[in-house]
Amino acid sequence: MSDQNAADAAGRADVALETGARVAPDDQQPNRWNDALRQIVGGSVVISILAVVLALIVGAILIAVTDPGVQKAAGYFFARPGDTFQAIWNVVSGAYTSLFQGAIYNFGRPTFAAGIRPFMDTLTYATPLIVAGLGVGLGFRTGIFNIGGQGQMLIAAAFCGWIGWSFQLPPVLHLIVAIAAGFVGGAFWAAIAGVLKARTGAHEVIVTIMLNWIALYLISYLLRTPGALQAHGSNNPKSPAILPNAVLPPLFGPQYQLHWGFVIAIAATVVVWWLLERSSLGFKFRAVGENPNAARVAGISVNAAIVWSMVIGGGLVGLAAVDQVLGTTSGGFGSSIDAGIGFDAITVALLGRSRPLGIFIAGVLFGAFKAGGFLMQAANGIPIDIVLVVQSLIVLFIAAPPLVRAIFRLPTPGRRPPQKKAPATPASQAPKEVAAK
Amino acid sequence: MKLELRGITKRFGSLTANDHISLTVEPGEIHCILGENGAGKSTLMNVLYGLLQADEGEILLDDVVQHFDGPGDAMKAGIGMVHQHFMLIPVFTVAENVMLGNESTGFAGFLNHKDARTRVQEISSRFGFDVDPDALIENLPVGVQQRVEIIKALSRDAKVLVFDEPTAVLTPQETDELMAIMRQLRDAGTAIVFITHKLREVREVADRITVVRLGKVVGEASPTASNAELASLMVGRAVELKVQKEAAKPGAAALQVRGLTVVDHLGQLVVNDVDFEVRAGEILAIAGVQGNGQTELTEALLGLQEHVEGEIVLDGKKISGEGVRKVLEAGVGFVPEDRNEDGLVGGFSIAENLMLDRSDSAPFVKGGGLQLGYRARFAAEKVREFDVRAQGIDTPVGTLSGGNQQKVVLARELSRDLRLLVAAQPTRGLDVGSIEFVHKRIVEARDSGIPVIVVSTELDEVDALADRIAVMYRGGIVGIVPAGTDRETLGIMMAGEHPDAPHEPPPAPRDLDDASDDAGSRGEAA
Predict the structure, then answer these.
(1) Which pLDDT belongs to residue B382?
(2) Verdict on whether the full-model pTM lies above 0.95
């Protein structure tokens, strides 16, 4: 009899399990609108946006605290508190207005063509961030942490620059060959880390960091060596200028910096989206990234996925170097050509949740920070470090979604009625609690 | 100190993990709690240790009702716990780990290392543990680390010591040493609760045995009970499962395995010279206690094991030594033992999981691109056919119940053109309804002429499905018997003795046995 009861209990438990996704806790009515809202609010896009907002708020506080005007007014806060708030408002609103005007649209200019110029700058800065972010994000989706963007960019710069200044080729062909060379350069440098991970299990974080240094000193050496990458008749560690045929032409005429690299970035975004969401290869990448064991059992070669993901990702990072070498600084480059883009790309990929469209938007946002940061510094005397702090805070807040949720009192996604996971929870909780003691 | 649990009940939602469990542990006694995975043993111990609060029932120590809000209370009351996964800090020394959480401080809050060291030395010499208090944990072998855990519990004057599956990570030698330690502690008057699902260990050290199944105490046994009795108590199911199936119409031998030997990545011999064949249209069940090489055997069939000797021939074609890809293409369907780890990608949708093992070629992929339209139609059809209960084909499988997840795995594997189906523990952790469904599908696969291998540690399942039964013990096959062989015989075989010669010692020399058993249990722990 008791056995029968046990079976009944198990049966009942199962009914609840089967429909677990929709059944609310016992005392509540199931409400799918409520559920949908939870999913949207608890979803990662919202977290990304809130992380940016939160970072800007903390940035505002830092601007206010470090401003001499505010400090002076705070000295007689209890006599005239209004002054302090006035000063805070002035400096913060001034700073963020500059940020906007430097990044999006400058209302001080007479014509639209001149007013929109900051936005064109933003897109120019965004271009390499987007392609490099796509490369790093592709790695994330495959479960690889590629922080070798710097090294991959340097090698790619050498490859595409060398093609760019060494050969005389017909106009369009030269550009295509140079771009391809940049892709190959980045792919090659990333492939080293990929193969080492696949073959020997070497951790990609360590290997890519080390490859960054190797690339940096290798390129620095070559830039100092006549006959290698150094420009003829120059004593500076700087490469020759790119031949006109290999320069990425401006997109909307010579008054803007924005070049065709931005079109490449848009195309890359679409291609990476197709690759990840619609192709067999991307399906394998994602399967390996989510659960390599199941992928292996299903006959997917985990090693091949890792290597190919690194190759394509490194190639995309290489395209960021192409933007720099053939677009922004086509007059020749030095060993700081990567301009920190390889590392910013990690933030961009994180902020964009490793989704191509998200990375595109995040890249534009970071481009805006870069473009606006200069004006903020020039017009308001606010150190550009504040912008860096804001960027870093974004990473911090994204890395700590529960923190963001707690601040905004959002529900935790995946928190479900207790039936489903409950039996597993105590066991998995147990070690943590004991460890905490 | 006498420990008594009275009517402990713990529910998670509508699932009752512990249902009025009562037991008494006397001082100077080793009390075994025996039960399958998921029987509620760990929940019970977490209640005892204060990690969980019981919904009903009470805990008594020396007839005084206790109330534990956390492990700290339980420790203060004299309950110590040795966890399966050690709670030690690898970069700390033994003495530091022992005093952790219970630090004695001297002048100005400085830690009193000397005190801790003396304490470790004192306890370790009392029981002959031979543990150096200044050794770093990370440099110690697993068995010694476990002793540190024991010292840690004893240093807090534990009078009741709980061992939660302590042998899962130990070698046979270390296991024997642990047994000796447990006896010694018992003789010193400690009450010991020993949780396990390994019959051999139970019979070796237990003074009393309580068998738990489905959250309930289903019986007590004395250590003189036979393995078969214990096994049937432990794995016996409340509901008799009857699968409607015709007698098998076996055809020619489709799968031949000859001299299969597997050495795992730790260099342990886990499958030892196994021969068997499976005919088309029959189910060969591989029975045995968990960790006797079954997992590695199925992995070897799939090409997932690296060091494999011997020959696996399917339909006249050799598939051993080929990669997983080739084996799957040869028509092998595989239902892995751990579906979350090896069978499904939790973040992927049902539709994506259904194409997981066919991500290379038509019909799911054409010209390198996914055929989403085809996939959606296919998934919708399979969801209907296999009665997967979910909101839609785009629901991530990680949010489904175990039964529905297993249906997704089965739907994927059975939708290919199969020449062989290997199902490892196909109903582990499933509810009764899903078990019946899975069994029905496996029998249908057999009836369509596919040779089927079912690996199961549950005799009920073996009984329900098998046309022939191979029993594995320490990496070898003890014997292959026809379906309907009585449980007692199977139980004896599961303990390694051949039924024809029940009173003879196990077939292989003992040291080899130990090595393979050790490897088996390691594989299980991993």
Answers:
(1) 94
(2) no
